Amino acid sequence: MLAVSVLVAVYKRSTAPVYKAHGLAQATMSDCVSETFSAIRTVRSFSGEKRQMSLLGSQILAFQRSGLKLGTFKSINESITRVAVYISLLALYCLGGSKVKTGELAVGTVVSFIGYTFTLTFAVQGLVNTFGDLRGTFAAVDRINSILNAVDIDEALAYGLERDIHTKKVQDENLRLFLSSGPNVNVRHLDNYYMSDLKSTNNLRTLTWAGDVCLEDVHFAYPLRPDVKVLDGLSLTLNSGTVTALVGSSGAGKSTVVQLLARFYEPTQGRITVGGEDVRMFDKSEWARVVSIVNQEPVLFSLSVAENIAYGLPNAHVSKDDIIKAVKAANAHDFIISLPQGYDTLVGERGGLLSGGQRQRVAIARSLLKNAPILILDEATSALDAVSERLVQSALNRLMKDRTTLVIAHRLSTVQSAHQIAVCSDGKIIELGTHSELVAQNGSYASLVGTQRLAFE
Ligand SMILES: Nc1ncnc2c1ncn2[C@@H]1O[C@H](COP(=O)(O)OP(=O)(O)OP(=O)(O)O)[C@@H](O)[C@H]1O
Prior knowledge:
Mean pLDDT: 78
Low-confidence stretches: 154-197
Bound molecules: adenosine-5'-triphosphate
Distance between the termini: 89 Å
Strand content: 5-15%
Order of helices and strands: HHHHHHHHEEEHEEHEHHHHEHEEEHH
């Protein structure tokens, strides 16, 4: 038994890294495949197919090598165990036979011994195999832990998640363990404070249709780069039912404003209000219902065109008439009825079977149906050709009507008719006014306009 224990201990130590390496090789291979397919457009646009194939080829070979090594370890272990077992059986036969011969033991006793030895042998073999499986499991758990430990928690996001989960009173002890064992006691305290004060949804819808949306002295740094201040005391009022354009050079913080308005993150300092109420008083999922975002690359799901349009109202009954009304307003009816199965045509993964402009108009129809009072257009027309842009722009004009809209665009020609234009620089608003007012000021906006004019001349 001592020999068996020593064997098991040696086996445990020697096979752990081999199991780990094999699991890692498998994970690397599947990561490569999923990454390649999820970014297939980028791969194709860089003619990277061969590169990806050769990368995957080398990873498959590494997986094969680690598999062979693991197989060798397993078979050596199996052979040693079996040899040990048969040697001990042989010794038992010899010893027992000689004892029977000298009359020290009865034949029955020796036969029982041999029976027990067989039972013990199978038990030990089972034990060693179980240890083998356990090794694999420990190696996998180790890798999961190392991934979990390496990922910095995005506190702004975790904070929102924590609140949602508490709100729904999830009883799962494991989740509770994850969520309430963080070091940030203050965030949890804040969370409880807001939890007890969440306002009703009806109130939010009424407020957002009638009230202004204000960013008040908003400061923000991304959780993964806490030392880089992206927004540094930004204040801006989006007047109810009007269009505000946010312009500025690349990296000024425009998309960050969108992320905060959508509440994917919360400001680190300052606040966002609607009709004078801090938006943190409202549940995030309810907030999502009053904000619509149309961006450069709208995501469609691999469903039919009609299902994608109705996606904006997942819990409500949507009639075909409502869908067609929204689609006509989005200039999408003509192209949809010319598709093979009309409204029932499947759009493919991420809407890949439609053109960019068609996808955009389906996304606009979806937003029209959602009928959210706050609308964010983040570079919505920048990826389109002139004809598509005209169709999409006229659909957008209908969508913007009477909604509190924030438009982000690099091409200033698309924002000249906005009720107000805000120029963002270094995380602050440095100029605010209409197009003609800002041009007359001859400041940053005027020079941006000048630069773009030069570029087109
Ligand atoms: N998830 C993130 N984590 C860390 N830093 C980020 C993240 N997203 C953006 N940033 C940084 O925040 C700054 C502002 O980025 P943002 O995308 O808001 O600028 P932008 O004005 O929208 O630029 P562009 O016009 O090029 O889209 C940049 O310096 C950027 O590197």
